Amino acid sequence: MDALTTARRHLVDSVWKRLGIQNDELKAIMNAVPRHAFVDSALSSKAYQDISLPIGQEQTISQPTMVAMMTNALAPRKGDKILEIGTGSGYQTAILAHYTPRLYTVERIASLSKKAQGLLEQLGFRNIIYKTGDGSLGWESWAPYDRIIVTAGAPVVSEKLKLQLADGGRMLIPSGGRDYQNLLCVDRIGSTFRETDLGECRFVPLLGKEGWEK
Ligand code: SAM
Prior knowledge:
Rossmann fold, 214 residues, 7-stranded mixed sheet, binds S-adenosylmethionine
């Protein structure tokens, strides 16, 4: 086993210990996705520390603990139609792509979207549909989605996004202040929505019509 694979195993083991979760499928996926490939080569040595890292354009790749916590809470099932808002480096995208034949991902910064697409294609992912644009509005033309994950902090849980959830669907979204938010899990049951607060978190702002002003 090479040094990066060993470092990745140690990281994933420590994240599982920290979160106290039982999710062998997600653990295997996080052990398989090479996080170091999603950051600049100068940061490779830090890729297996449990920290967020810069990816350019003032954006970040999320902390592995947060990625594991959100994906575990999202609880994607095989075959779910999933929408991700905030492609960023494409790391969370790669993890979600293991669960679904159709993953839709939206990023507002064209250069990040293009870079993530190039890397994910190089890694062999063929089931991802990319869009550059304002994901605070969701992606209406492919709705409804079984799962929606927003990886940037929103001022409010947008009605537009909620209405793009399928009946029985679930959305994970950081919501609150521009710098600090609470991670909310929104479940749709018919025409009602149940919100559960999973605790404090810190994300870059979701910028857009249903997000923050630039
Ligand atoms: N999940 C990403 C990863 O694994 O690298 C990290 C995402 S980063 C914390 C948040 C991303 O959301 C940034 O790339 C940012 O440009 C993007 N973003 C912010 N507002 C957005 C919007 N309205 N629509 C789409 N993407 C947005």
